[in-house]
Amino acid sequence: MGSVFDHLFTWFHQVFILQFNGWVLLGFVAQFFFGMRFVVQWLASERAKRSVVPVAFWFFSLGGGGLLLIYAIQRRDPVFIAGQALGLFIYFRNLWLIANERKAAAMTKVD
């Protein structure tokens, strides 16, 4: 049984300690931002007692997705790059739609 724990300890040490550098730190920061979007969405939904996607969700998505794309490019991972690049398009598009909706609502109030 000790051998299993030794192998597990060695694996964790190689993955989380020996590989740690500025890029890995960036990856963890990016994951934090990306994860925060779910916290923001969950709290907004709990307050409203219905499913809500606040604007902050899209900004955290954009920030986390952008940093993850940089990380994926540095890692040269084509699957990760393609996924994050597509996601950024969707996040920008949602923010664009929200801005247009707010602009139209503001113009309606002026009339």
UniProtKB/TrEMBL annotation:
Give GO MF terms, alphabetically. lipid-A-disaccharide synthase activity
- Keyword Membrane listed? The answer is yes
Q: Name one GO cellular component term.
A: membrane
Q: Which UniProt keywords apply?
A: Membrane, Transmembrane, Transmembrane helix
TM regions (residue ranges): 20-40, 52-73, 79-99
**GO annotation (BP), single:** lipid A biosynthetic process
- Identify the residues that the record assigns to the Lipid A biosynthesis N-terminal domain, covering every copy: 26-97
Write down the superkingdom of origin.
Answer: Bacteria
One matching Pfam family, short form?
LAB_N
Protein name in UniProt: Lipid A biosynthesis N-terminal domain-containing protein
Upper classification of the source organism reads:
Bacteria, Pseudomonadati, Pseudomonadota, Alphaproteobacteria, Hyphomicrobiales
